[in-house]
Amino acid sequence: MSLLAHGIGGVRDLPVPDWLFLWGGAVVLVLSFLALGTLWRRPLLERLSPGRPLPPGLERVLRSTVLRVVLGSVSAALLVLVFLTALLGEPSSALNLAPTFVYVVFWLGIVVLQVVLGNVWPALNPWLAIADAVAWLWARLGRVWEPLAAYPERLGVYPAAVLLFAFTALELAYSDPASPRSLAIAIALYSYVTWFGMTVFGRRAWLTHGEAFTVYFGLLARVAPFGQHDGRLVFRAPLSGLAGADRRPGVLAFVAAMLGSVGFDGLSRARFWQDLRARVEGPYVLDSRGLADLFGTLLALAGLLACILLVCVAYLAAVQVARRVIEEQERSLVPDFLPSLVPIALVYAVAHYFTLLLIQGQFAIPLASDPFGYGWDVLGTYDFQPNLAPLSPNSVWYVQVGALVAGHVAGLAVAHDRAISIFRSRAALRSQYAMLVLMVLYTVGGLWLLSQD
């Protein structure tokens, strides 16, 4: 089994040319923009965001200490297990549970839970569960766990953006990302940084600003039909959690890392990039494999950074054009439309990785019985045979196209709703011309990258 094929299905014998899909996606966005301008004249998402409270009995169960302790204990045990398998298990990614668990079950599976159930990550966060357990024991000893310093608000979520970049660089730029030993080092380093941040700034402050997965999963959970309002768990309209502006410093950098990393993942499998990497590594492969890997990793890091910067520049340019079109001098508009990029980041992940989750996720079943690769059959699932072709290549392509177009239409809707909540109707519509161009560019670029595999 090959873990890092990353699940993009090849496109074969499509009934229409690739360029027609690109034009079709652009036309759908333009028509959606016209429909939004005609039919959506009043802010809607902010009015829907309070939602309806869940039944009190259900909320008591979901907020119960027992459930929190059980979930936290399981997640903490899984963190320890995955670290030990990465450190001590067989070094092959095909036999060791760690690569499949980290890159598929955790990185992709939690996204599904967040989008369907809302922000369940705080209950599943193993680093928080262990920190809470230590704090509880500390309190039982009569001691008080006080943060050593106040978190500097000007830093915003920049630390989380840096850590997200580090994780995606390991996954997409490092020469051997599926190496269990490399993952063991990464888990140890990330755990140290997380617990150090919690110790210095406090658990909640660091989770909110510095813990990459909390920020990442939290942004995606804003798409979900379940959320919180005034301290209550609520059922709400999908996307309504994206109403309003996100003024935290560093959110643009974080969202750009979300979008740019997935974009680079597609770019790195294009033929021209593979040829470029071969030319960079080629002179050193026979004489010094380590040097070849180093140059390949540096090239990939440069490409990853370039994709992230491209997302930032494109968004800032669109916002600046919007300001000029409506002659807005007082507001920057940058935080106002950032939430509209969250659905796009979600569908980029869906389009690129849903087959990885669908296919490689099945390998977690036999690996769960033999996590270290020692030939065990603890759960009796060692002989499970995954279905390696659950979808045809063309079906995969249709899902990818549909997801990308739907996500960009959702992004247009969120941006439009925000525009009409802060501007008059005519100015609001004019401010969205640049956002429409941005969404078309993102859609066509995303489809082109997918078609290059």
Overall residue-averaged pLDDT value: 88
What is the tally of helical segments?
Answer: 21
Give the overall shape: globular
Quote the beta fraction.
under 5%
* Number of DSSP strand runs: 3
Cα end-to-end separation: 19 Å
The largest sheet, given as strand count, sense and whether it forms a barrel, is: 3 strands, antiparallel
What number of structural domains do the residues give?
A: 1
Helix-strand pattern? HHEHHHHHHHHHHEEHHHHHHHHH
Largest beta sheet: what is the strand line-up? 1-3-2
Report helical residue fraction: 55-70%
Q: Which residues form runs of ≥5 with pLDDT under 50?
A: 7-13
Q: What Rg is obtained from the alpha carbons, in whole angstroms?
A: 23 Å
Oligomer: single chain
The chain-level structural class is mainly alpha
